[in-house]
Amino acid sequence: MLRILLTIILPLALWVWAFVDCLTTPEDEVKHLPKVVWVLIVLLFPPLGPIAWLIAGKQRGFARTAPATAGDSPYPAPRGGRQVAPDDDPEFLASLEDLKKSDRHHEEMLKEWEADLRRRERELRGKDEPEDGHKP
Known about the structure:
By secondary structure, this protein is an all-alpha fold. The protein contains four helices and no strands.
């Protein structure tokens, strides 16, 4: 039973996993060779192809230079293979300043709109009142 596991099932599982991983990996995370070549290597040279793919074919861990898709993360990828704390990242701090400026601008616009609304309400109330100045 162990012999079947080591000679048939384990290599087959490795081959299937490496093939699916190779197919689903974005092109910008594939290293050394084009993705199509890696797919052919994995398919045509079991079990050496899948092992080569695991060792040299894909960027793993913090080696990624960009998110896999645009929606993955709003923050830049770690630099130099290590995490950067937000308070140590000048780009992140600059983005916070931009948000603060945007918030202040929105608050000012809201105050202007409220003042305009109050002015219009006063004008409308003035038109509804009778000409003698008394409310009905």
